[in-house]
Amino acid sequence: MEHASTEHLLVENFEPENSALRIAVVTETWPPEVNGVALTLSKLIVQLSQRQHTIQLIRPRQDKHDTASQQTAWSEILLRGLPIPHYPQLKLGFPSKKQLIKAWTIKRPDLVHIATEGPLGWSALRAAKVLRLPVTSDFRTNFHSYSRHYGVGWLSKPIVSYLRKFHNRTLCTMVPTMALQAQLAASGFENLSVVARGVDTQVFHPGQRSVAQRAAWQVQDDTVVLLSVGRLAAEKNLDLIVNTYQSLKQSGRKVKMIFAGDGPYRAKLQIDCPEAVFMGMCSHAQLAVAYASSDLFLFPSLTETFGNVTLEALASGTPVLAFDCAAATELIRHEHNGWLVPGEDPQRYVLKALDITRSSATLLQARQHTAASVAPWDWHQIADQVETIFRSVVTAHNPA
Fold first, then answer.
1. Mind giving me the DSSP string for 272-321?
2. Which of 78, 160, 255, 303 has minimal CB crowding within 10 Å?
């Protein structure tokens, strides 16, 4: 009985408009959950709905108070979910093949797009195959890389095998960078298209820099504010941020460390870096001010498929120090709007931070180029790419 109301909602609202597409989007994470998948997917879906496409969102119910949205040309099917180990605020959707077949038989979408590869995503793939619906997918999370940070590195090969089997059953898998496309292609993944993430430059921009925020952090004009944004978890390589900060302090640099975000690693970080500011979970508005009010964004993660925080920092006018991987490779021009550290050597990362902060002019010069360097990464242009892919897949699947 749980799905009766959502199926009724589907029948009433899931109607095409003119030549627009009916798109069923399957995801196991969605705002107000705070993570890169939920936030970037929601931005994209908003853009597509504004182009008059009819959106049907299928996702796990986040809590007992969660109710399906009812809007013109927008509907939701909420299904049961199970908390993910180490990520209790996120859910894995239960297998729901029968429910999806029933829903999509009542009102047939033109395309099914699967954003996450969990049990719900797999159910959607199987249901779409039964109904002969075209399917596209996203590769958004390096689960195979995360496994080694939780003592189950031996699972990496089976995870890659599962992901390859999953994505190769779709007509197109969207990946955020050319480097990831090459890596996945070498592992046997097929039908890959590069679609970058976007940034909302109306929210993230240098004008958000705030004297009041810096005062709240108790820093002076000549203090170099170091910022880290994201989930506080083992796979984010946060110990290197602490080591970098401590090395800068020991060398006599006047620095302040800010962590925006929360997670299971917070308690350890507070012990290792007690003088840092821990902002906890932040809204987009709070993050925009934090980015712009900082002087150097530290991003040492090696497990990202993209790393939207890199894009947000640059749009906010803050240069980035990152390893030469994921989005950083394509967004950062070394010694222009930030700095790239080759390989995975933590000592080289620390040495580069020491070099950057030797003179305040180095950071100020890089700051002049940050926002302009990511101006083309606007969500409107990203939505153009995705819309083109969707139409191409639908046409190829059913030329008539």
1. H-TTSEEEES--HHHHHHHHHT-SEEEE--S--SS-HHHHHHHHTT--EE
2. 160
Phi, psi of 230 (to 5 degrees): 140, 180
Q: What is the mean pLDDT of the chain?
A: 88
Total residue length of the chain: 400
pLDDT one-digit tens code per residue, 155-211: 467 888 899 999 999 999 999 888 889 989 999 999 999 998 899 999 999 999 999
Among 65-79, 86-100, 224-238, 269-283, the least confident range: 86-100
Helix (H, G, I), strand (E, B) or coil at 353: helix
Q: Which domains does the chain have, with CATH numbers?
A: 4-198+378-397 (3.40.50.2000), 206-373 (3.40.50.2000)
Q: Please give the Cα distance from 145 to 157 (Å, whole number).
A: 10
Q: Which residues pair with residue 172 across a beta bridge?
A: 136
Q: What is the pTM of this model?
A: 0.78
Q: Using CA atoms, how far apart are residues 307 and 326, in angstroms rounded to an integer?
A: 7
